Amino acid sequence: MGACRENCADKMEQFLKRCYYHSGQYNSEEHFAELDSKLKEKEGASSNRLFYLSIPPNIFVDVVKCAGTRASSTSGWTRVIVEKPFGRDSESSRELTRSLKKYLSEDQIFRIDHYLGKELVENLSVLRFSNLVFEPLWSRNYIRNVQFIFSENFGTEGRGGYFDSYGIIRDIMQNHLLQILALFAMETPVSLDAEDIRNEKVKVLKSMRPLQLEDVIIGQYKGHTEGSISHPGYTDDPTVPKGSITPTFAAAALFINNARWDGVPFLMKAGKALHTKKLVNLLYSKLIHYVLVCNWIIKALDFFDNYKTHRAEIRVQFRHVPGNLYRRNFGTDLDKATNELVLRLQPDEAIFLKINNKVPGLGMRLDRSDLNLLYSARYRKEIPDAYERLLLDAIEGERRLFIRSDELDAAWSLFSPVLRELEEKKIAPELYPYGSRGPVGAHYLAAKHNVRWGDLSGED
């Protein structure tokens, strides 16, 4: 359940009274016909039906066929939410789309990417298009590079079965990070209508330079012991095949070949078992001891879940000030004199702008300070979970945060050639210690494009 919700107990009780369980086989039309009869007992004269497919992708089509032919609403709408993965590459994704469209129209299919429901992602367009201070700067003329960063401070931990067949590029980069990039870089849409927004996102994806293998770095975490703290490597996980070369980390440099963004590096990186505070490592090691000694597994896992961290942020690094009068005050590191806009999607949602500022005193000493909007301090109201927003949108028929089929095809077209090359050549990932900052190759990739990873500066 996560954080305590307002009046959660009362609302949950009301909700559970309206929940029913019906058992059946995914591929049985007879069982879906029974479900249809059960639903009609509870529904009124007019009914709408929303099917949520949070199931293995190999049975998507079976369920859609049975639901579409035997359990669709006859007096209202029928919609289907499809949880990722949407295929493994361009070919399988197109085949899945073709199969789904045998039984559903495009406007009935809601491909859900929960990252698009996050508050800061929703606010991205508002920040840009309704603030005069940002919109004129949103181009190659002022922006030096843009970074999309996702990191987890834990590994697969016994859940490597699904992950090993997909890897970090398919799991995070091809969908979550690329969708955010498209929203960030798109031109001003004609309106806030879903189709107008999705049209602009597709244009961005189709304008992207083909991704080259030399602009991709992959890594895999290995076991690491520091003092009394020990963490197993990826291939030490019993649910992961021995000798697996599936990447748990990836970094990529992408470029958009249009007038607004020509030459601006868009860097992505995503990884598991990355740097975390030593306090969390200590708590983890103590917790493992607690589990082994006491065997209170449920309580222990609930306790540890609070210390698992997904970190996601967008970092916009602006160009150097031409002829900066104060360059001497920053010494030789001129990067410290550049402005940076950071949107932290999670945890602790925030927007902050790094600006140059004079330190009070008689001398002329400059400092880089933050103009900080921390959501928890500014807005006392609870921030809705991403899934809450997206499920409500699906019920209301609002499609702007869901992925259209041509958008999905363009996203796969960008990553499929590189994924195929990595797998055909069996390129081994660079190993990095559990709890480190990732493979060294990621730093070389950034340096190749004259970029520094902003999350490694230690300033945040």
TrEMBL record:
Q: Which SUPFAM superfamilies match?
A: Glyceraldehyde-3-phosphate dehydrogenase-like, C-terminal domain, NAD(P)-binding Rossmann-fold domains
What is catalysed by this protein? D-glucose 6-phosphate + NADP(+) = 6-phospho-D-glucono-1,5-lactone + NADPH + H(+)
User: What are the residue boundaries of the Glucose-6-phosphate dehydrogenase NAD-binding domain, all occurrences included?
Assistant: 9-123
Q: Name one GO molecular function term.
A: glucose-6-phosphate dehydrogenase activity
- Which PANTHER family does this UniProt record tie to the protein? GLUCOSE-6-PHOSPHATE 1-DEHYDROGENASE 1, CHLOROPLASTIC (PTHR23429:SF13), GLUCOSE-6-PHOSPHATE 1-DEHYDROGENASE G6PD (PTHR23429)
EC number(s)? 1.1.1.49
Cellular component (GO) terms are: chloroplast stroma
Report the family membership. Belongs to the glucose-6-phosphate dehydrogenase family.
What are the UniProt keywords, alphabetically? Carbohydrate metabolism, Glucose metabolism, NADP, Oxidoreductase
One Gene Ontology term of the biological-process aspect is: glucose metabolic process
Name of this protein: glucose-6-phosphate dehydrogenase (NADP(+))
Question: Per the UniProt entry, what species is this protein from, by scientific name?
Answer: Oldenlandia corymbosa var. corymbosa
Which branch of life, at top level? Eukaryota
- UniProt xrefs under HAMAP family: G6PD
Pfam families for this protein: G6PD_C (PF02781), G6PD_N (PF00479)
Domain Glucose-6-phosphate dehydrogenase C-terminal intervals: 126-278, 309-453
Which InterPro entries does the entry link to? G6P_DH, G6P_DH_AS, G6P_DH_C, G6P_DH_NAD-bd, NAD(P)-bd_dom_sf
Q: In which pathway does it act?
A: Carbohydrate degradation; pentose phosphate pathway; D-ribulose 5-phosphate from D-glucose 6-phosphate (oxidative stage): step 1/3
